[in-house]
């Protein structure tokens, strides 16, 4: 068995083409979708991520606005900027690129973003509301993974799903979204003993641990769907996931590549959430 690859890049391009048309229609109705991106400091990786997001905005017909702040910017100054963006009707989404400098409280900054502009889906309201399936904006990476799973045509309901990694950004919300689809979910993390005894039972295996090569072929059930969320840069410059691609490909039925799998979908779902926010704004201002 050789796994079929789940092409996140192809799906992302298809979705963005449709999003551009939606953005055009919103603009005709008097609402130009807008995303504000706040970057504090000059972290090289963060700068790359921001450029990718701004490029996606252009591709989808979304107006983007950068706020590039020096690393010494105070927490109060960041909070003041977010307060201004919260009140700006031309801004439908606010994204604060992480990580922030150590003197800034990340949680306080995220919680200061208006819930209806939290297009990253990191606000406590949005994360907590996943428990009852009513978040305004689902976190972008799990949202993208959900769509990638849909491309396999496999019904998640009743399947054994294992999530490796328990972060607040990916692992925990991913598990909640799988539960909403009636999967039987296990979450593994850094202190899980004998990881393989869990992964080998997974019909759907989602790996977001940040450790290159963590999952090898013998740890994967034959015929499983394997979604590799990891993005790791090796010493030789190569980008790899958390899954040992070559060995897992010989056992899985479906597998996401790295790069070209989950990454493009994460950015695409940020665009989707921004468009949804703009649509909500258009509905609120539509004549009765």
UniProtKB/TrEMBL annotation:
<dbReference type="InterPro" id="IPR046346">
    <property type="entry name" value="Aminoacid_DH-like_N_sf"/>
</dbReference>
<feature type="domain" description="Tetrahydrofolate dehydrogenase/cyclohydrolase catalytic">
    <location>
        <begin position="6"/>
        <end position="120"/>
    </location>
</feature>
<comment type="subunit">
    <text>Homodimer.</text>
</comment>
<dbReference type="GO" id="GO:0009086">
    <property type="term" value="P:methionine biosynthetic process"/>
</dbReference>
<feature type="binding site">
    <location>
        <position position="231"/>
    </location>
    <ligand>
        <name>NADP(+)</name>
    </ligand>
</feature>
<dbReference type="GO" id="GO:0004477">
    <property type="term" value="F:methenyltetrahydrofolate cyclohydrolase activity"/>
</dbReference>
<dbReference type="GO" id="GO:0000105">
    <property type="term" value="P:L-histidine biosynthetic process"/>
</dbReference>
<keyword id="KW-0368">Histidine biosynthesis</keyword>
<dbReference type="InterPro" id="IPR020867">
    <property type="entry name" value="THF_DH/CycHdrlase_CS"/>
</dbReference>
<dbReference type="Pfam" id="PF02882">
    <property type="entry name" value="THF_DHG_CYH_C"/>
</dbReference>
<keyword id="KW-0521">NADP</keyword>
<keyword id="KW-0511">Multifunctional enzyme</keyword>
<keyword id="KW-0378">Hydrolase</keyword>
<feature type="binding site">
    <location>
        <begin position="165"/>
        <end position="167"/>
    </location>
    <ligand>
        <name>NADP(+)</name>
    </ligand>
</feature>
<comment type="function">
    <text>Catalyzes the oxidation of 5,10-methylenetetrahydrofolate to 5,10-methenyltetrahydrofolate and then the hydrolysis of 5,10-methenyltetrahydrofolate to 10-formyltetrahydrofolate.</text>
</comment>
<dbReference type="InterPro" id="IPR020630">
    <property type="entry name" value="THF_DH/CycHdrlase_cat_dom"/>
</dbReference>
<dbReference type="GO" id="GO:0006164">
    <property type="term" value="P:purine nucleotide biosynthetic process"/>
</dbReference>
<keyword id="KW-0658">Purine biosynthesis</keyword>
<dbReference type="Pfam" id="PF00763">
    <property type="entry name" value="THF_DHG_CYH"/>
</dbReference>
<dbReference type="InterPro" id="IPR000672">
    <property type="entry name" value="THF_DH/CycHdrlase"/>
</dbReference>
<dbReference type="InterPro" id="IPR020631">
    <property type="entry name" value="THF_DH/CycHdrlase_NAD-bd_dom"/>
</dbReference>
<comment type="pathway">
    <text>One-carbon metabolism; tetrahydrofolate interconversion.</text>
</comment>
<keyword id="KW-0554">One-carbon metabolism</keyword>
<dbReference type="InterPro" id="IPR036291">
    <property type="entry name" value="NAD(P)-bd_dom_sf"/>
</dbReference>
<comment type="similarity">
    <text>Belongs to the tetrahydrofolate dehydrogenase/cyclohydrolase family.</text>
</comment>
<keyword id="KW-0560">Oxidoreductase</keyword>
<dbReference type="GO" id="GO:0035999">
    <property type="term" value="P:tetrahydrofolate interconversion"/>
</dbReference>
<keyword id="KW-0486">Methionine biosynthesis</keyword>
<keyword id="KW-0028">Amino-acid biosynthesis</keyword>
<dbReference type="GO" id="GO:0004488">
    <property type="term" value="F:methylenetetrahydrofolate dehydrogenase (NADP+) activity"/>
</dbReference>
<feature type="domain" description="Tetrahydrofolate dehydrogenase/cyclohydrolase NAD(P)-binding">
    <location>
        <begin position="139"/>
        <end position="280"/>
    </location>
</feature>
<dbReference type="GO" id="GO:0005829">
    <property type="term" value="C:cytosol"/>
</dbReference>
<protein>
    <recommendedName>
        <fullName>Bifunctional protein FolD</fullName>
        <ecNumber>1.5.1.5</ecNumber>
        <ecNumber>3.5.4.9</ecNumber>
    </recommendedName>
</protein>
């Amino acid at each position: 068995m050789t796994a079929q690859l789940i092409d996140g890049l192809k799906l992302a391009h298809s979705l963005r083409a449709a999003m551009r048309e939606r953005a055009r229609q919103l603009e005709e109705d008097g609402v130009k979708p807008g995303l504000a991106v706040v970057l504090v400091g000059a972290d090289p990786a963060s700068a790359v991520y921001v450029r990718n997001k701004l490029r996606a905005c252009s591709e989808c017909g979304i107006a983007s606005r950068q706020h590039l702040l020096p690393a010494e910017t105070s927490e109060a100054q960041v909070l003041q900027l977010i307060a201004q963006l919260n009140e700006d009707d031309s801004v439908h989404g606010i994204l604060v690129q992480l990580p922030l400098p150590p003197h800034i409280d990340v949680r306080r900054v995220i919680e200061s973003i208006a819930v209806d502009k939290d297009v990253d889906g990191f606000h406590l309201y949005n994360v907590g509301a996943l428990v009852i399936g009513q978040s305004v904006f689902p976190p972008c990476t799990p949202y993208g993974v959900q769509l990638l799973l849909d491309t396999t045509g496999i019904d998640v309901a009743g399947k054994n799903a294992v999530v490796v990694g328990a972060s607040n950004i990916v692992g925990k919300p991913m598990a909640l979204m799988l539960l909403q689809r009636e999967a039987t979910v296990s979450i593994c993390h850094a202190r899980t003993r004998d990881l393989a005894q869990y992964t080998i039972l997974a019909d759907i295996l989602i790996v977001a641990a940040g450790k290159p090569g963590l999952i090898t072929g013998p740890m994967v059930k034959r015929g499983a769907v394997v979604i590799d969320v990891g993005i790791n840069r090796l010493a030789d410059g190569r980008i790899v996931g958390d899954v040992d691609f070559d060995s897992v490909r010989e056992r899985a039925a479906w597998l996401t590549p790295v790069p070209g799998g989950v990454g493009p979908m994460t950015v695409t779902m940020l665009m989707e959430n921004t468009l949804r926010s703009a649509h909500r704004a258009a509905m609120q201002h539509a004549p009765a």
